[in-house]
Amino acid sequence: MARITKRAVEAVEPTAKPVLLWDDQLPGFGVKVLPNGLRRYLVKYRAGGGGRAAAQRWYTLGTHGAVTTEEARDLAQQVLAAVARGEDPQGDKFAFREAPTMAELWERYVRDHLPMKKKTSQYDDRQKWRDYIEPKIGRRKASQVRRDEIDAIHKSLADRPYVANRVLALMSKLFNLAERWEMRADGSNPCRHVIKFKEFARDRYLAGDELVRLGAALREGLETQTETPHMVAAIQLLLLTGARLNEVLRAQWDWVDLDRRVINLPDSKTGKKPLFLSEQAVEVLKGLQALSTSQDCPYVIRGRSKDQPLTNLIKPWKRLCERAEIEGVRLHDLRHTAASIGVSNGTSLPIIGRILGHTQARTTQRYAHVDIDPALDAADRIGATVSAALGMKKRR
After folding, report:
1. In 3D, which of 169, 177, 183 has the Cα closest to residue 140?
2. What is the C-alpha separation between 201 and 335, in angstroms, rounded?
3. Could you tell me the pTM of the whole model?
4. ∠ CA 197-199-200 to the nearest 5 degrees?
5. What whole-number distance in Å separates Cα of residue 334 and Cα of residue 205?
6. How many other C-beta atoms lie within 10 A of the C-beta of residue 302?
7. Under a CB-based contact definition with an 8 Å cutoff, are residues 334 and 234 in contact?
8. pLDDT tens digits in sequence order for the chain, 396 residues long
9. Can you tell me whether residue 214 is helix, strand or coil?
10. At the N or C end, where does the chain have fewer CB atoms within 10 A?
11. d(C-alpha 383, C-alpha 368), whole Å
12. What superfamily does domain 208-390 belong to in CATH?
């Protein structure tokens, strides 16, 4: 046959086997007529610069009707030009099909990198991937994700700048590892030049009258049995110790030393550290020890079963805030409240840092000379203020 034309293509009758027509004006350009009547344009070439030893490739250009004969010819010329430059278009297509998706990159991240992080960080990463990243780019090829896609994900969380920046940081880590694992070209991280949102530290903490109302709400919760003693104790300990939420919820009795008035945390966000216990915090712990529900439970704040800690304090906290008519206070703000009470009582910033367990490089040096006794002293002053406001009674 001479030149492939629209008329020639449509004139071919399908048979039980595919029929091939080749264009003698553009070597390698052809059309395959399938038994079902479909006509597909293709180009045939040898990869690697040609030669009989080179692999033969069949590159599909499109289906007749979706592309015209002349459009297919132009595409064939582009493919053959690329081959002449030493490229392998069909090999690239195969490589793209086999290229890992973001979901596959995540699977390797979970297997090879995530176990090196702390449990809380692992949980955070999984939540960010599940809620924000996977729905948007989980099926995309890792090598093909663009900066505008990353920017769109980041901007979709503009009302939560802290979350947005943490999601951006996780995506950046994923793409850095993708480069290391040869899933993307070096220096191609699409998170580069995506501008982070400004973050503003929250200064919210409970004022004196709010503490009083919270104390009344805690007592009412116990009386009406809407809150358990363990839930109430968790709130009290957060205020009395300035601890982080998980430090209290996951504390175990084996870590508690009432004689030395510390809970020795084997690990935390900042590593191994003690939680200093005021006299009032010791009273709370002794009250928990006396409960029948605490027997045989390894956790200080027991959950629904005796071998599990309480995992959700958010719903009880919401109920308590509604009852106490307190707005805009997170559980983490109880930590800020403890610190603010300490400062207002004249406790120095290094002592406050010691109580809260700050370990940033420049502040750790300032805390190095602080020993346990003044820290316990400060904890007692905080405890006295908190317990007086909450109306807590001393155990006899």
Report:
1. 183
2. 13
3. 0.56
4. 150
5. 7
6. 24
7. no
8. 578 899 989 989 999 999 999 998 898 999 999 999 999 999 998 876 666 667 788 888 999 999 999 999 999 999 888 888 888 777 667 666 778 999 999 999 999 999 998 887 898 999 999 999 999 999 999 999 999 999 999 999 999 999 999 999 999 999 999 999 999 989 999 999 999 999 876 667 888 899 999 999 999 999 999 999 999 999 999 999 888 899 999 999 999 999 999 999 988 777 788 898 989 999 999 999 999 888 889 999 998 888 889 988 999 999 999 999 998 888 888 888 888 787 777 776 667 776 777 665 343 233 333 445 567 777 888 888 888 888 887 765
9. helix
10. C
11. 24
12. Intergrase catalytic core (1.10.443.10)
Q: Give CA–CA dist 125/58, Å, rounded.
A: 43
C-alpha span between 8 and 17 (Å, rounded): 18
Helix H or strand E encompassing 331: none
DSSP alpha helix (H) spans, 226-278: 229-241, 245-249
By the 8 A CB rule, do 324 and 209 touch?
A: no
Tokens matching residue 300: 């200080």
Distance of CA 279 to the CA centre of its chain: 38
Please state, in angstroms and as integers, the Cα–Cα distance from residue 85 to each residue in 39, 74, 96, 269, 384, following that order: 29, 17, 20, 55, 80
Q: Which two tokens stand for residue 36?
A: 């079902």
Measured distance CA(188)–CA(174) in Å, rounded: 12
Tokens standing for residue 355: 């109580």
**Secondary structure element (H or E) that encloses residue 25, with its range:** none
CATH class of the domain at 6-97 = alpha beta
As beta bridge partners, residue 39 has 33
Q: In what order do the strands lie in the sheet with 29-33?
A: 19-22, 29-33, 39-46, 56-63
- CA 326-328-334 angle, 5° bins: 80
Amino acid in the structure at residue 316: P
Q: Please, what is the Cα angle at 212 between 204 and 339, to 5 degrees? A: 40
